[in-house]
Amino acid sequence: MEPIKAPEATIINAKDSDPFNHEPYSAPLHRKLKSRHIQMIAIGGIIGPGLFVGSGNALHLAGPAGILISFSLVGIIVFFVMQALGEVATLIPVSGSFTEYASRFVDDSLSFALGWAYWYLWVTVLANEYNAISVVIRYWTPVVPQVRILPIPLKFRET
After folding, report:
1. Using alpha carbons only, how large is the chain's radius of gyration in Å?
2. Rounded distance, CA 10 to CA 16, Å?
3. Residue 158 vs residues 72, 79, 119, 155: alpha-carbon distances, Å
4. 42-59: per-residue pLDDT in tens?
5. Could you report the per-residue pLDDT of 76-104, keeping only the tens digit for each?
6. How far apart are CA 80 and CA 68, in angstroms?
7. What is d(CA 115, CA 102) in angstroms, rounded to the nearest whole number?
8. pTM over 0.90
9. Angstrom distances, CA of residue 152 to CA of 31, 113, 147, 155
10. How far apart are CA 23 and CA 97, in angstroms?
């Protein structure tokens, strides 16, 4: 009976052995998201925070018809932007985010700035969401100061 041999691993160069150092345009991708999945992701990402944070003041200032017109206009714009991004992602699939397209079509410095701007956007959105949560909780319990309410969402985030 012959001993079982282990398969030989071939490393072409050191770049291939590092999982974090790769070309974004050569990574294998599986196209399993359908159009309806991408549309639901876009709708959920835009409508959720917008309705949660700004609907009360918008209703007061513009009324129900103004809200409907504004949300419809912004929804159409977001739809076309996401449609264009989906077309580019289908034509040139990359394993990175949309900043890879800025690097490819314009410049690496734009990609760098876009990445940091996106990070800053989500940091401010997170702070805005925490503030909105404290405003909603304070609606029911005005006795508790806002400083005491803000750590509540942070505690839920830990679990």
Report:
1. 23
2. 10
3. 36, 34, 20, 5
4. 777 666 655 666 677 777
5. 998 898 898 888 888 888 877 888 888 88
6. 18
7. 10
8. no
9. 39, 33, 10, 5
10. 13
